[in-house]
Amino acid sequence: MSSLRKRLSRGRLLGIVTVWGTASILGASVALLGNTPPTTQPASEPTGKTPSTSPAQIKLSIPDKLTFCTVRLSCILENGETSTGTAFFFVFRPTPNRPIPVLVTNRHVIKNAVRGTFYLTRRDSEGKPKFGDLKTVTLDNFEKLWIPHPDKSVDLCVLPVESLLNEFFTKGEPVFFQFFTPEFVATKKDLEDLPALAEVIMVGYPIGIWDSKNNMPILRRGVTATPPFLNYEGRSEFMVDLACLPGSSGSPVILYSVGSYTHRTGEMAIGEWHAMLLGVLYAGPKYTLHGEIEIEPVPTRTTQFQVPMIPTNLGYVIKAERILEFEPILVDLMKQQTNQNNQPSMNRSP
What we know:
By secondary structure, this protein is mainly beta. The protein has 6 helices and 18 strands. The protein is globular, with a radius of gyration of 20 Å.
């Protein structure tokens, strides 16, 4: 039996126990505490006042849990324009007792952003999400808060959120979300076991569309368009056949199937569900009215192009293994902060 079949036939149960929450499928069902200072909301934004569904009546499936992995990034740019994109939660685990939580998105999503806003869903006393009960997070100097990928050619960046989560914990209001962990990332062996044509889903906010009442993203289904085990054009990427519209930048692309999975050799792996993080959408080829094909990052604004562009329903995906390259940077940053906290104060009395 292949490694992929062994790992996926029972659904890959993941989870870590942290100071923020308890372990569950798909990373962790995180019970964070706290709130951020209230901000003035435009009339078109959610107020987060009235829950629309009783969480006691909802039993979350795996796709349901995936909808709590992402956040809709709404950015105000230096020129005063606004843009939207997608980010998702990821937790590194350099040591069992020291997880490092971050948000992951494309670097172009937060470029020139002076302010960013996203929303989280509160949870009830039983640890279930309170659909429609939203918490607003607004951060200034937004672009400067993100850490770019060490390889400038890789359109990824991460936002460390540990201090934000500690603030939530201190203030005493719980929120609900899910996150990916390194164990959920497709390995080289996993990709070699995949067929050239594999079914995937993408979670995000195309054209900024979302269920603002319930803080829900849009799920889309498609297939891989190039063999995932190959590096497309020599880059650690592959292509997908999906409608990759503005606002989808930063969306996680996930292998997902229910009931069974077909190995590239034709073998059948049988189980309740199969899921694996394959990568992050960042760009797509466009066809101009002048007959030219151009490769552009998936835009964050719907009015970005002066020359009309015809979508090809194809997208470029950065392989999820590139996310793991942030870990040494984050570990060094964590050590620096620890050393600074351990340094004696110059004003301390002897």
